[in-house]
Design goal:
The chain has 3 domains: about 50 residues, no CATH class; about 130 residues, Response regulator (Rossmann fold), CATH 3.40.50; about 130 residues, Rossmann fold. About 5% of the residues have low confidence. Helix content is about 45%, strand content about 15%. Helix 5 packs across helix 12. It is built from 12 helices and 12 strands. The strands form 2 sheets. Strands 2-1-3-4-5-11 form a 6-stranded parallel β-sheet, covered by helices on one side.
């Protein structure tokens, strides 16, 4: 029997089981005694956990991309590649290898299973997808993890990311200042980061007379975003101002607009989010909200290594920056 099976029998997380079997002081005495008794009953060897999870150093950090709400999104997505590249550089400088994993979550304990594998010394999660509850449950006990994503008050997750609410506000206010009256937010609001971007976008609209806003649910992959934006334009009046939840969505939207004979920015002003390298090379060049992924990657690594060393750290929300180019 392995640790995962033992944890399931006990009805606790894998991280709680590992702490209980290694006599960690944060685990209640009753829970610890129950786990030890179950381990003995099922022939589980206690030193398996102690050796693999407390003492062994693998020299690798797991970089995990959970795709619960966007199962077709690839690791070749430009934003992922930029952040993963920064993480690889930062980890290499500190003597660690990077173990990259794209995960479509199956069941509530997918993250527990990654931890129980013993293949990495800690985990960097890129994005929270629609898995906020599962990540939060693991973060309650497992300290060797940091998350690129949205911060939440009272959360146990240590996060690094942009202040997405402010980013959404910056974009909407810029569109409104240009005279746009019919604004659209392109993207799903299931993921916490996108939800926060929409919150800021909506707040700016609510404060402006005569301005209306709508959400157009669009997937993150380029082909899906183009197809869905094309369908939306065929059935609805085109907005005159767009905030896309990512640069990839913005680029796809600009192609769909051009196919209908709409000019950017004359007919429709378009703003993206991320400021990937390709953003400056679109035609017209894409106005976007900049996220400093190189700095963010270094922060993620620094915070994770501090947690591995037993230090207490806090979440970091970086200030977004509006990069004005030709599309808005």
């Amino acid at each position: 029997m392995g640790l995962v099976e033992l944890a399931k029998i006990a009805g606790v997380s894998v991280s709680t089981a590992s702490r209980a079997l290694s006599n960690h002081p944060r685990v209640a005495r009753g829970t610890r005694e129950r786990l030890v008794a179950l381990a003995q009953e099922h022939g589980f060897r206690l030193n398996q956990t102690a050796s693999a999870l407390r003492k062994q150093r693998t020299g690798a950090i797991g970089v995990v991309v959970p795709l619960g709400h966007e199962v077709d999104q690839a690791l070749s997505d430009p934003f992922f590649m930029g952040l993963v590249g920064g993480l690889a550089d930062a980890l290499t400088k500190r003597g660690y290898d990077l173990f990259l994993s794209r995960v479509v979550p199956q069941g509530p304990r997918w993250l527990d299973d990654i931890i129980a594998s013993g293949r990495v010394d800690g985990i960097v999660l890129i994005g929270q997808s629609d898995q906020l509850e599962a990540i939060e449950r693991v973060a309650t006990d497992y300290e060797r993890m940091v998350v690129w994503g949205a911060a939440r008050l009272g959360s146990n997750q240590i996060t690094v990311g942009t202040d997405n609410v402010t980013g959404g506000e910056l974009a909407a206010r810029h569109l409104i200042a240009r005279g746009c009256k019919r604004l659209a937010f392109l993207g799903s609001t299931e993921a916490p980061e996108f939800a926060d971007r929409y919150t800021g976008f909506h707040a700016a609209i609510a404060e402006s007379d005569g301005v209306a806003g709508t959400v157009v649910p669009i997937h993150l992959t380029m082909d899906d975003a183009y197809r869905e934006m094309t369908a939306y334009l065929a059935a609805n009046q085109a907005p005159d101002g767009i905030l896309a939840a990512s640069d990839v969505i913005a680029m796809s939207a600009m192609r769909a607009l051009a196919d209908r004979g709409l000019r950017v920015p004359e007919d429709v002003a378009v703003i993206g989010y991320d400021d990937i390298q390709l953003a400056r090379y679109t035609s017209p060049a894409l106005t976007t909200i900049h996220q400093d992924v190189v700095y963010g990657a270094n922060l993620l690594v620094e915070l994770l290594l501090a947690r591995i060393a037993g230090q207490t750290v806090g979440s970091v929300a970086m200030l977004p920056e509006l990069i004005v180019r030709d599309s808005a």
